[in-house]
């Protein structure tokens, strides 16, 4: 399933406009918030390279993930710079705040390949975001960024899967 979703993303011809729409939806959600925890998009992930800057302009503090050797996520404040890291990732070079820092966020934005209408999120399979989301207090909005057509009727769920509360697409927000 993951392979098919990734292939569909690579074949999209509307990425520039779709990414701009996702950024606008997410920036509107982040406007005026204190702390937002988000992600740095890989190629073909919603939001595009400009997502961190768009979010940082909308909120007081943006936390971005730093992948630890055990595949858990640490967090660092975004100050406008990203450096290359392992696995093709980019991350902030600043001080690490620890895995629990995500719990301080007023809004958490996560990548996904698909989400179903129950909030089940399909990621890339490493479990990093499921571990991180287990630290997010109940009631904190957790929004997955998707392209059109990636909100589906049903996905398989495991007991450790943490559900999202909404999805941001190029055309707006859907609360789940």
Task: Give an account of the 3D structure.
Helix 2 packs parallel to helix 3. By secondary structure, the chain is of the alpha/beta class. Strands 3-2-1-6-9-11-12 form a seven-stranded mixed beta sheet. Strands 8-7-10 form a three-stranded mixed beta sheet, with no helix packed on it. It has one domain: NagB/RpiA/CoA transferase-like (Rossmann fold, 3-Layer(aba) Sandwich), CATH 3.40.50.10420. The protein is globular and about 40 Å long. The model has no long low-confidence stretch (mean pLDDT 96). It has helices spanning 2-10, 15-30, 51-58, 128-133; strands at residues 35-37, 61-67, 73-77, 83-84, 90-91, 107-111, 114-116, 121-122, 142-145, 151-152, 166-169, 172-175. It has four helices and twelve strands; from the N terminus they run H-H-E-H-E-E-E-E-E-E-E-H-E-E-E-E.
